[in-house]
Amino acid sequence: MIRIDKSGVQIPDDLQISGQALKLEMQRAYDANPNNYQAQSPDDPANKFEFDSKVSGSNEVKAELIYVQNGKCCFCEAKMRHVSDGDVEHFRPKGRWKQVNGTPINYPGYYWKAYDWDNLFLACQRCNEREKQDLFPLEINSIRASNHNVDLSQENPMFLDPQNDNPEDHIEFNDQYVRGKSDRGRTTITELGLDRSDLDARREEKLDDIRALEDSMLSSIGLPNEERNRENFLRRLSHYVSGEGEYSNMFKSNFSQYLNQL
Fold first, then answer.
1. N or C: fewer beta carbons within 10 Å in the chain?
2. Helix (H, G, I), strand (E, B) or coil at 88
């Protein structure tokens, strides 16, 4: 997981025009009768907001997310475009939420964030549909924003925000194995399955590739091919640690001694 920079990208028109109109419509509906949207029981709300996935998940929105994320999942950093279109993930769940797995689902969700560019990311289906789902834990659940009139800045999400947090401050790697440097990092890893065995295996394959180049470089010190092997290794490492490379946080953690040479 690495930080995603959207600063150089214009907000897609689908969100600025259609999305904002739908957002205002929901906000007016809520303000007109808030009780209509309060759950009578956790799984039986009086009313549910409806969302248009053709707006938040439009081709334009998805294309911009693919661009800013280099085709990688915002959570696990796997490239997915060769096998899947990926999901447009709402960091704050739009329709409903739960604090902890195994507890009741609560309504409404963060409906007013359904079409906000800063709440949308591209995620692989495994991370989005099987791991995160409606889960959105806060450090203190009692101060959760229940509607659009409440200040979101009072919340302290336990999931790392791919845009507003720097995951490298909270997550590091020992070989292919991920570990948390903070409570938020540990929660993100555990609840999003970033330590799942199949992901470890895939990361290990990539790690073995660059370590083979490192071994060639080190074994050729003092030999005629030393400079060529060094250039090959640093060129490949430069790609792996860049935003374009899969699992770049892992490579930064394992090859930090070379970063100042890139």
1. C
2. strand
